[in-house]
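Hi F.,

I've been meaning to write this up properly since the lab meeting, where we talked about keeping a consistent format for the predictions we share between groups. The idea is simple: the sequence comes first, exactly as it goes in, then the C-alpha cells exactly as they come out, then a line or two of notes. No screenshots and no reformatting. I'm using this chain as the first example so we have something concrete to point to.
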Amino acid sequence: MKIAVLSDTHLERVSRQFEDIYTKYLSGADLILHAGDWVCPELVDFLAQKRLHGVSGNMDPPEVRRILPPKKVLELGSRRLGLIHGWGSPKGLEDRIAGEFEAVDAIIYGHSHRPQCHFREGTLFFNPGTATGFSAAGRHTMGFLDLGESIRGDIIEL
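Output, unedited:
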C-alpha cells in the first residue's frame, strides 16, 4: 500500500502549485494522510477524490474542525497508526503527542514544519514537514509510508 503523507499545507485555496503536487506525487497513492493545518475546507474536498484520512490542526478554521477530528487511530492491515497535528513549541512536541496514543506502530504528526522520520521505543515518529507552507529551511517536503513486514517512511523534497 502506497501512503502519501502531508501536513501544514496552509492553503487558502487549492492552488495550481498544489494541483501539480497532486498530479506528480499524490495521484498514484492508495491512501492520503494529512496531519492538519489545511486552512481551507476546499483542500479537504479536493484530496477526498482519493481515499483520505485527516485531522484538524491549530490553524484550521471552524469549517475544517467540524469535519475533521483533532486526532484519530487508523487500523491498516495489522498496523495501527496514530494521526495528530500537535501543538505548542517544536521543542518537546514528540513527548507531548506520544502520550496521546497507546499501542500504535507509528505516530504521524505535523505542526513544526520540520520533517522527521525515526523510531523511538519501537514506534515510528513521522512528520512530513510542509509541502506548501512556510519553511524556515526554505524547502518543501512531504512523505510516503510503506506498510509491509515493517513500517518504513521516506521524506521527499518537492
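Notes:
The chain has a mean pLDDT of 96.
The longest helix spans residues 16-26.

If this format works for you, I'll send the rest the same way.

G.
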